[in-house]
Amino acid sequence: MQKGLASEMSSSFEESYLGQLRKIVGQKRIIVPGVRAVIRDKQGRVLLIHRRDTGRWGMPAGAVEIGDSALDSLKREVKEETGLNVLDATPFALYSHSRYSFEYPNGDRVQMFALAFRVDRWDGELVQKTDETIGAEFFSTDNLPDLHEVYAETLEDLRNYNGNFILK
Q1: What is the mean pLDDT of the chain?
Q2: Span 23-40, average pLDDT
Q3: Which of 30, 47, 126, 143 gets the highest tally of CB atoms within 10 A of its CB?
Q4: CATH for the stretch 2-167
Q5: Three-class secondary structure of residue 39 per DSSP
Q6: Each residue of 42-88: pLDDT tens digit?
Q7: What SS3 class is residue 57?
């Protein structure tokens, strides 16, 4: 099991679906439905957030909450972590294989079931610091900071995306 993937959870963890579930199951491995966003600026640079919990860079991402669609969750997570509003997004990949199992720094174990979206249109002002982040910045894809492997794989998958949904 890999360690160190930034937690893809909402900011008020105790009140979230995942937080409530953790109170029941503890740190056992569970399947967590989640979303992640690939947001690019006009120059084609990708937006990454600097995670407060791990100190690593990643994509805006998080768990799906009860009552939310995947798109609702994407919009909420992007807003919480970046201040930006998702106006239009295209799902392009689903990561659900057991190799996407992780152990978070707090010992919680998960198998991701993450839907990746290409954010086609967005607006708003980028926020540098939030409850979950210590920075946010657009990076050229040939000059990325230290990313967890799953985020690097997502960027590579989008680069090779030909319109056929990617299922891993």
Answers
A1: 91
A2: 97
A3: 47
A4: 3.90.79.10
A5: strand
A6: 999 999 999 887 888 999 999 999 999 999 999 999 999 999 999 99
A7: strand
Helix (H, G, I), strand (E, B) or coil at 132: coil
- Cβ distance 67 to 33 under 8 Å? no
Sketch the domain layout of the chain as residue ranges.
Answer: 2-167
Tokens of 126: 């980028």
Query: Closest by alpha carbon to 53, among 6, 113, 97?
Result: 6
Its pTM stands at 0.88
Provide the pLDDT for residue 1.
42
110 CB burial (10 A radius; 0-12, 13-18, 19+): buried
CB of 100 closer than 8 Å to CB of 111: yes
Residue 4 corresponds to which tokens in the numbers above? Answer: 């160190």
Q: What is the CA radius of gyration of the chain?
A: 15
Q: What's the angle, vertex CA 109, arms to CA 112 and CA 115, rounded to 5?
A: 10
Place of tokens 């109170």: 23
Q: What single DSSP character describes residue 99?
A: G
